[in-house]
Every structure is written in C-alpha cells, then in structure tokens.
Design a protein that fits this description.
Strand content of chain A: 35-45%
Number of helices of chain A: 2
Structural class of chain B: mainly alpha
Order of helices and strands of chain B: HHHHHHHH
Oligomer: heterodimer
Structural class of chain A: mainly beta
Radius of gyration of chain A: 24 Å
Strand content of chain B: under 5%
Largest sheet of chain B: none
Strand order of the largest sheet of chain A: 1-2-3-4
Largest sheet of chain A: 4 strands, antiparallel
Distance between the termini of chain B: 57 Å
Number of helices of chain B: 8
Shape of chain B: elongated
Chain lengths: ~425, ~240
C-alpha cells in the first residue's frame, strides 16, 4: 500500500492467493483492485532480499455497478481470486465480485520494436516524402512492462452473491458458487454456463440453508465439494448426473449435546473448505474450530482443532455485534502436515497435525519488524496470567484475520490484516506449545 | 427477633421472585451469573435475545440486497428461541426453566403467527428479487388459514394452532405495523376482496420487499404479549 495515501475502506484486503508455483501472490481488495506480488529470485549479489515479494502489477479488476432493473448497487469488492495453471509465458487468473467473474491475462514485455517505416520514435506518422528506403524493425530490450488485459467476462450467471470460484484440474472448466446455486463454466465460453447445484426451495420461506463455499477436487475433475450454513459438506460427482443436487457423500458431525446453545447452528456454519494437496482430506473452518475430514469417512471429522474456544462463553455478545457471522478462511501447507487459520486481535493460528502442537502468532507492525522473529502469543482466560498474555476481554474484535494463504511448496505465508499484507517466511519462530 | 423478621421477609421476597421468574420468558442470558452475560456490554443486558434477533432480522431484510446467509442464520436462531419459549415446543428445551402456565397458548400462537406471518411474507418477497418481471406471487401459496404456514418446519408446534379466531387478531395486530409501507405497485386484482379464501393479510398488503419499521413501542408490545403480562389489544400505533 503506497505510504502517501491515507488508508480507506477500499484498501481492505478481501482475498489472498498464491499461484501454483508460489512465484506470484495476488491480493484483491474492497475497492475492486488486484495487486500481484512477485518473488524476487534469490541471488548472491543481493543476499538481503532473500526471495522477498515485490509489487509486480496493480490493476482495477471490478468497478462498482448499478443494476437498474433491480435498483441495486453491485459492490466491486473482490471476493475471490483463483490462478489458472500456467500454460505458456503468460499468467492468467480469475477474479470475482458478487456477480461477475473475469479472466485476466498477465503478460510481460521486455523488448520493443524500433525502426518503423511509417511511424517515428514517438509514434507519429512520418511524412512519406522523407522515407527513402525500407528498414526491418528490430527488437530492442526495454524496461520490463507488465501488461494486464481482461480476456473474458462471465456475467449474468448469478442471482445471488458469489462466494467461491474453483478451477477444475482439467484446466478447461471452472465453477462459481453463490448462496443457492453452483454453475459450471468453460473458460472460453462466456455466454452460457451449466447449473450443477440448485438448492433454492420452491418457496423462499422454506429456505433454511445456503451454500457457503465450494471447491473442485485437485485431481479428480469430476468431483467437487460444497459446504453449507448448517455445517454440512456435500461431495458431488458430475459423472453421476447432470444436476448434482443429490450428493455422493454427505459429511456431517452430530451436534454435541453438552455444547448446545441458541447459537449452535451459527457457529457450525462452515466458512471455508479446502481439499488437501493430496486430495485425500478436506479442511473446514467454522466459527470456533478447524476440522480435518477424511473423504472416506462421512460420520465425523478425523481431527478437530480449537481456534479460540475461549469465545464459546461470549457467543451472545458476538451475536449482538455480528462478529459471530465473520467468515474465516483456512489453509494447508504444501505437505498437508500443518494447517493455518486466522482469528481476532490480528492473531493467526497454526496446528501441526503430526506433533499436535499449535501456536498463536500476531500480524502487526509492532510485533514484526523486517527479519524479526515472531513471538508466540497466548490468550489467557483468567487464572494465572503470564507477562505477555492477552486477556480475552482485551481482544480487539475489529482486527480480524479472515484471509490467509500458504505457499504451495515452501514455508511462506501471506496474512491479510485489514488493509495490510504480511508475508512471513521460514524464519518464523518454530516454537510450538 | 429482628433477625428472624428479616429472614422471613427475605424468604417472601424470594417466593415473589420465583413467581415472577415462572411468569417471565426464560432469560438466562440476562442472568449476571451466566458467563456469556458476564462479559456482555451494558447495551445488550437490557434487551432480550428474542428482541435482538427480531431487530437483526428486520435490519437484514431492510438491506437492498440481504445477505442470505446472515438472514437464514438469524431466522433459524429466532425459530430456536421461539421454540424454547413455547410450552408445547417439540424441540427439547434449552437448559432453562419451563415457561409458566400463566402464558396462554393462544396468545403465544397468535403472536408467533403474527411474527411468522411477517417473516414468511418477507422471506417470500426475497423470491421477487430474482425477477421483477414475475407477478408478485399471491399468498395463496401459503395455504388457507387454519393450516400451518406453508413449509414451516414441524418443530414449530405453535404454528399449528393457527385458527380462524386469530385471523382478526392478525389483522388488528399487523395493521399498524404495515401502515407506512407504500404498496401502490402491488395494488392489483390479486388482492381483491373476493380472495378471502387466502391467508389473511393486512389491508395495506405486504408485498413490499422492504420490512415494516417496528418501533420500540411495538417491539415492547410484542414482548409483553409473549410474556403474557398484557392481553392482546389494538396497539396505539401512529395515525390512530
């Protein structure tokens, strides 16, 4: 974020995504802008910039729109960005707001032709009488220019708000999901899409459940999963039927009777679902926990991790101030051994699935100078309090880390804290407790 | 002597308290001993969870394009709260003292029906967002009076108690609430008086996508009716 601009609401980061190699990192914000960072190659000549990320390109992806038919303003906020696997020198990504998905192509230009016959250096047409001989333009090196152009606009596919997009492993199709429907698109065709899931009831007053997130399986192009506001996951097989309203598998954990409250349903609502890189597991985030599910077991998750259990006794207040509706994302590391998710007070949490140890870290300017080691944080719930502990009542609920991403191969993580982006590399303090 | 008198007075006070508690709607969230409440900011402590949920519901519906997830979650939570307040609820009660016999079933039913009617019609309006070219669906879809509102989950036992007697109550109870809605675009033959077989609706119609503005007095009235401290009567709304 440029330092001369006063941060505004438009600068709030709304999505973060590494590309498939981790070389590029894209962020989207509330103002409809996309900023792409590129990792500098590590070189002996500049040892201090050890693979750091610098701004590569910035462009306006979506503009605010007005739907005249319904008298509704359509927000330009970027809800999700997904990279396409790279197939040539260019990079491509999909970005979406509530209603429209766009395919952007990012190309580099580091040479330009010089010596045109009809135009001069500034591009002005030459006086033909001065042209006495023909020359072949020559490509000369120039300063790197990154060009971004919109190649496809996938509009009018959704009545409700798009919450997720996911590129299929076939690299030809992708899906977009809103509150009630999921559509399948071909990347080259913008004027039509196939509806593959529709949970809209005949009478809207019967509506009790909405779709909250969805993702294609990383290897099986016919499989995808979608989560609901009631905490269930549905795995669907596109080979079984054209309309995937009937799930192949339903993953649901029965409610714990000892923890039952008026808010049970709200806190069970799944805010994010991610397949593991291996494709064997799914990771879900609900309000208080992250859960790992084995695709072969529908009855319950195989692992459950408490993100901030100390909030369970505060659900009433969190309902009152709407924080209970916050949607946190979750992420796997490259080897599927560690999972990460955000929390409040600019805290984020990591859970090591093998050692069962976890750590709470903070993303803030004060606690992380460049190349400083992150110090583990602790939230105390009364009782003995250590010196640097934060008490539950001092947590800042306006500082929420909703969006996080993990480099596909290395221990590099990107954390969005409101309008600031933090990138932490492997020098992170590995002390887990 | 003084001590025993003091003790006796205390016991009587306690008995009176218990009676009050028995009459009151379960309000564990107001109990200062409850951990959830202990941390609540003062603003929450004075209103009930039910009121809060109704406010959230209306606020959500007032948005030009409601966040469906938020809306659905609030509605479902409101249904849970309603179910726990009704003595004949099919859902197992949330840990709380049962509502006292002082609350009349019919009062609860009609108030629930009033709320459910407004919720149902407001949710129905969401389907209008999809295509304005569709004519507003007549409320005939919801079935004649005397039957539960179409599609209501069976666990809401109170809705089954909708009877012909409550139709007048509905008319009276809701008239004031919908007075300020401009429904000129919905004035059509569909709302003609000969459609009396339809579920009763307020005279002003309820097809507008915007929720009625419930002011504090009317919310208090709703609460009082549910608590049973006030018999159902015509509210003294604006313009009366």
């Amino acid at each position: 974020m440029p330092s001369h601009r006063v941060p505004s609401e438009a600068d709030i980061i709304s999505t973060v995504e590494f590309n498939h190699t981790g070389e590029l990192l894209a962020t989207g914000d509330k103002g409809g802008r996309v900023v792409i960072f590129q990792r500098e190659p590590e070189s002996k000549s500049a040892p201090r910039s050890q693979g750091e990320y610098d701004v590569y390109s910035t462009f306006q992806s979506h503009e605010p729109e007005f739907d005249y038919l319904k008298s509704l303003e359509i927000e330009e906020k970027i809800n999700k960005i997904k990279w396409l696997p790279q197939q040539n020198a260019a990079h491509s990504l999909l970005s979406t707001n509530d209603k429209t998905i766009k395919l952007w192509k990012i190309t580099e230009r580091d040479k330009r032709p010089e010596g045109y016959n009809l135009k001069d250096e500034e591009g002005k047409l030459k006086d033909l009488s001065t042209v006495t001989s023909l020359q072949v333009p020559v490509l000369k090196p120039m300063d790197l220019m990154v060009e971004v152009s919109p190649r496809r606009v996938f509009a009018n596919g959704h009545t409700y708000h798009i919450n997720s997009i996911s590129v299929n492993s076939d690299c030809e199709t992708y899906m977009s999901a809103d509150d009630l429907r999921i559509n399948l698109w071909h990347l080259a065709i913008t004027d039509r899409s196939f509806n593959i899931v529709d949970i809209k009831p005949a009478n809207m007053e019967d509506l009790t459940e909405v779709i909250t997130a969805s993702e294609f399986h990383p290897h099986h192009c016919n499989l995808f999963v979608y989560s609901s506001s009631k905490g269930s996951l549905r795995l669907c097989d596109m080979r079984a039927a054209a309309l995937c309203d009937k799930h192949s598998k339903l993953f649901e954990e029965p409610e714990d009777p000892s923890n039952r409250s008026f808010f049970s349903e709200i806190i069970s609502s799944v805010s994010d679902v991610k397949f593991s890189h291996s494709g064997r597991y799914m990771l879900t985030r609900d309000y208080l926990t992250v859960k790992v599910w084995d695709l072969n077991m529908e009855a319950r998750p195989i692992e459950t991790y408490q993100v901030h259990e100390y909030l369970r006794s505060k659900l009433c207040s969190l309902y009152e101030n709407d924080c209970i509706f916050d949607k946190f994302e979750c992420a796997w590391n490259g080897s599927d051994s560690v999972i990460m998710t955000g929390a409040y007070n600019n805290f984020f949490r990591m859970f090591d699935r093998n050692t069962k140890r976890d750590v709470t870290l903070e993303a803030s300017r004060e606690s992380s100078k460049p190349r400083a080691v992150l110090k583990p944080r602790r939230v105390c719930v009364g009782g003995k309090r250590r010196r640097d502990d934060i008490s539950v009542d001092s947590l800042d609920f306006t500082k929420k880390i909703l969006h996080t991403a993990w480099h596909p191969a290395e221990n590099i993580i990107a954390i969005a804290a409101t309008n600031n982006l933090y990138i932490f590399q492997d020098k992170v303090n590995s002390e887990m407790h | 002597m003084m001590l025993s008198k003091g003790l006796k007075r205390k016991r009587e006070e306690e008995e009176v308290e218990e009676e009050k508690e028995a009459l009151a709607v379960d309000t564990w969230w107001l109990d200062p001993g409850h951990p959830a409440v202990a941390q609540a900011p003062p603003a929450v402590a004075s209103s009930s969870l039910f009121d809060l949920s109704v406010l959230k519901l209306h606020h959500s519906l007032r948005q030009s394009e409601p966040d469906l997830r938020h809306l659905v979650l609030v509605v479902n939570t409101l249904r849970r709260i309603q179910a726990s307040m009704a003595p004949t609820a099919a859902l197992p009660p949330v840990p709380s003292p049962p509502a006292a016999p002082g609350v009349a079933d019919s009062l609860l039913a009609s108030s629930d029906a009033a709320l459910s009617a407004s919720m149902a019609s407001l949710l129905e309006d969401l389907s209008h967002i999809e295509g304005l070219s569709q004519a507003p669906q007549p409320l005939a879809d919801e079935g004649p009076p005397g039957r539960p509102i179409g599609g209501a989950p069976p666990s809401l036992g109170t809705l089954d108690l909708l009877g012909p007697a409550t139709s007048c109550l509905l008319d009276d109870g809701l008239e004031g609430l919908f007075e300020d809605i401009d429904t000129s675009m919905y004035d059509s033959e569909l709302w003609a008086p000969d459609s009396e077989g339809l579920k009763p609706v307020p005279e002003d119609g309820s097809g507008k996508a915007e929720a009625p503005e419930l002011d504090e007095a009317e919310l208090d009235y709703l609460m009082d009716v549910l608590v049973g401290t006030q018999a159902l009567e015509r509210p003294s709304g604006p313009g009366r």
